[in-house]
User: Fold this.
Amino acid sequence: MKYGVVVVGTDGSDSALGAVDRAVEVAGISGALLIVVCAFSALSRREHAVATAQVGDTRFQEVIGRDAADSALAAAQQRADAGGAPRVETRLVEGDPVHVLLEVADERAADLIVVGNRGINTRLGRILGSVPSVVSRNGRRATS
Assistant:
């Protein structure tokens, strides 16, 4: 299958960087535009810990703070450049990782969303869901 637009999410983790590597490979084969997305929370770590304790929802591994998000995005950009991605755009967006990935993919009419496997094999990830599993359940299916 040939893709025109590939979106990949990153949080700076090894799993996410592996997803970037795979997305670069796919984009290279197809000559696709690669959009690297990092969603982040503007809360301080302390504010995030308090909110998580009150809400109890820890299913998503969020990037906390703009500096951490900038670092995660820069690492992914370096991987994309080193891997020879033909065209790369980066997006830093405040918000929930699932919502942000799906929104960017919809906005740019992406043919493919690539995510890592972080959280899938954790007990909490299996119970509540992880970014990869929730994105895969909620992404639109392409028909051809």
